[in-house]
Amino acid sequence: MANSKVINAHLIESIKEKSSITGIIFDIERFALHDGPGIRITVFFKGCPLTCWWCQNPEGRDISTEIMFWADRCISCLTCEKVCPNVAISHLEGIIITSRDKCTLCGTCIEACPSGAREVIGKKMTVSEVMKEIEKDVIFYDESGGGATFSGGEPLMQPDFLNSLLLSCREQRIHTVVDTSGYAETRTLLNVSKNVDLFLYDLKLIDDDKHKRFTGVSNALILSNLRELSLHHDQIVIRVPIIPEINDDEENVSRIAEFVASLQNVTQIDILPFNKLSIDKHKRLQRPYLLKKQSLSNERVNEIEERLRGFGFKVQIGR
């Protein structure tokens, strides 16, 4: 009986310790339908080691909190400039400018803004707090075969936080998905993989020089990690964002297919057509958007789909 009490005490302490681990997230999307099977909740982790030109979630790139400015909400009252204690806000010809070097994210301007034009992106949360959000919709996960998806940013940049959430979901029998670029230490990826039901693994470019140019990093680790992961995990879906004039050419599509075909346990490739939704996000964060105003035809998407099917893959077109 004494030993049982000791074991229970250790278990309780372990649960408390895990629940108190914190991480930085920038959004929680409930009733998500495109980030894995069924109805899901998607938790977006802040921080990403890649700097993709077409990034759909630029607010997830920096692991620290930051301010997003909605120009269309601004009424040009200049209250934010007047109240900023660090003189970080100025205006030039009617355009509000925030100096990242001076801004300390104190939140004074946000509280003072009468039109809600300024917003803090990034929030520190404990595992327990995130799990409370996840557990709200358990009935929908059970009925639809859904669960929790951890995306970003790059969730593997916060491995302790991620692993604790995965373990907590496993305790609640909640299906888990990790959406990753694969750019992380191999040991970290394999350790996390033990608690993941399904991986959504991004592949963008096979040519390493082009990968460095358009994402800021080499793809050598990404490809080697994927090969290693496929030896240990049998639920992996490859995701390929299709960016016109960057990776939609026949050579890249074929080389991606050939590489994936050489792996074990990978039979599905999802293609994600390029969209322009993130252009406004870049503006709100005062970051340059490097892509030209490009568009991707449905015809080209269908051609890529058929090309990948020709390699024997199950192919789905995502969003």
As residue ranges, the low-confidence spans are: none
What is the CATH homology-level superfamily of the largest domain? Aldolase class I
Assembly context of the chains: single chain
Query: Number of folding domains?
Result: 2
How much of the sequence lies in strands comes to: 15-25%
In CATH, the topology of the largest domain is named TIM Barrel
> Order of strands side by side in the largest beta sheet?
7-1-2-8-9-10-11-12-13
Q: What order do the SSEs take from the amino end to the carboxyl end, as H and E?
A: HEEEHEEHEEHHEHEHEHHEHEHHE
General form: globular
User: Would you tell me the overall average pLDDT?
Assistant: 92
> How would you sum up the major sheet?
9 strands, mixed
Helix content: 25-40%
